[in-house]
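Issue: ligand-bound run for P-hydroxybenzoic acid - logging full I/O for the record.

Environment: standard queue, default settings, no custom constraints.

Inputs:
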Amino acid sequence: MANSRSGDSVIDRIVRVLATFDAEHTEQTPTDISRRAGLPASTGHRLVGDLVRSGVLERDEEGRARVGMRLWELATRGSMALGLRQAALPAMGRVQAAVRQHTQLGVLDGDQVLFLERLSHPDAGANITRIAGRLPLHASSSGLVLLAAAPAAVVERVLAAPLERLAAETIDDPGALRRKLAEVRRLGYAVAPGSIEAVSTGVAVPIRDRGSVVAALGVVLPRGEENDRVVAALRDAAAEIELSLARSSTILATFES
Ligand code: PHB
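Outputs:
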């Protein structure tokens, strides 16, 4: 793959172009994309043109680019995330009908939680989580569940890095985080009141596949509304999702054999 003078490959530059799109930047001019991707304007304009021609990006009436449906199609259909989301959705729907707030599914990706799905009620309280958005492990209930089950190297790396304080009650002390992770392992769920924002509490449980934690299922509630019924609903849902994952691994194994 041809490298530019700065040493990055065409693939690196394309990924940087695609990574400029987020919930706050869904439609951007090629000039803005180039700037946000840290690319010379001529390179950015050329890459955007090539990506539009291949359908990875689309252009709106004003000439601004947005992520194309083709990219969604290619990214989704072969992804491991799709199987997990499909296994989880029926049970997530039941949790959502019971809590009528927010129900979400997250996985560990790098040193963050990446959210694959979120169901919400129109009258639900605050929640900063977005589908395909990320939250820090130490600050969110899903993150705490995933970190509590992560390899020791990940835990130590997170503990050694600065623990960003997102709200007054975010755990930003490594010793306190170590104790919180021990609590999550002991209880089998995480409660994070006022950790992301003062007004809400996250509650999350692990989802296991063949013995390993592969995801976290969580709810976000207005502060003070957390209770044992929520934990029980999440646990029932996690058990159902685990059964569905086990069934699909058996089906896959049958096809592979
Ligand atoms: C959480 O998972 O703890 C969480 C996530 C998003 C929020 C609040 C809490 O807005």
